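Input.
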Amino acid sequence: MKSAFSFFPGWPLSPDAIFWAGLALLAAGLCGELCYRAWRLPRISGYAVIGLVAGAAGFGVIDTVSAKAARPLLDVALGLLLFELGSRLDLRWIRRNPWLILSSVAESTLTFVLVLPVLLFLHVPTIVALVLSAIAMATSPAMVIQLKTELRAEGQVTQRLMTLTALNSMYAVVVEKLVSGWLHQEAYGNVFATILQPLYLLIGSLVLAFALARTCIFFYRRMNMQDEHSFVALFGLVLLAIAIAHLFKLSTILSLLAAGIIVKNMEARPQLWPQHFGTAGWLLTVILFVLTLTSFEWKDIGIGGLAALGLIIARLVGKLVGVLAFAKPSGLDWKQGVALGLSLSPMSALAYLLVDDTYTLYPNLDPSLRAIMMCSIVVLQIVGPWLVYRSLALVGERRE
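Output.
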């Protein structure tokens, strides 16, 4: 039987998950503002710092169990941003300027080609090096959209940054899934399943993307999607697509990004996807950046710190050289080419989720994959925004 005074709180006090989540968001908001007001750094850098402090490398208030429980939230946040990014990729512009696609292929291919031998030289296992090289091709879509919104950036470099990010994210997902076939063969030794696994994942994800895009176009033609009440239906439609992807074990990343691209290019006069989803979208983005770094542990530096440094340098060189090779033919001067190449450096949530998906399928995979990627993400989520910030300032496209 309870005491008559059981209405008083127990001692010691035991705050629940909501308390720690609220505290983490409060700290992230304050730290982001401090970075911006005191040092003119993008707020994202502040969010990343709080993720480190709150996660396993800091006070541990967001533990591994909580981080895994928040995985659906990460999928939703990144999925919405990927759909927005895809809906900004104009294939008509690429057809008018084919040097853009050559620049995209060059920077992604060079990234893969340079990162792979560097990792092998540093004694990273071959299959792990292949997966890491594929993931390294992608620029962080969430970070690019967040920085464009925060800095109010507009211009040739910004527009190309969005285009190249959408394309290299697509390449990274496809190549990573194809490389995973090797893992599937090693884990199960079934040739038929090895061939079928990437085909099912890629084709199924594209079918889902097409279905989502057609449904979105149906809504576009009958509703004003700039109206906040109609937007609720579209928001729910995207969430439903993410749930279906989970149900059929498809790639939410590929499905949402491809759906956005299809919507943009199938509709003759597509309505603009509401930018950044308002306050709710901003909040989801903050949560995304905070949670991405909570899984980092200090032991990761000992396991993969040196390899991560090699990956970061090789990746930066690959993207910079790839962009500069076709900068002039595509209509950029050398300064704009350098700014674009450096702006492709951020790596964050998309890379984290691709690694997490790999371990979900192959839990016995070498732990160096996660360690190398987490070390790389920590550096590039903190330093990457600063590089974008300075690069866009260099070419006069920062408007904040």
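The chain has a mean pLDDT of 87.
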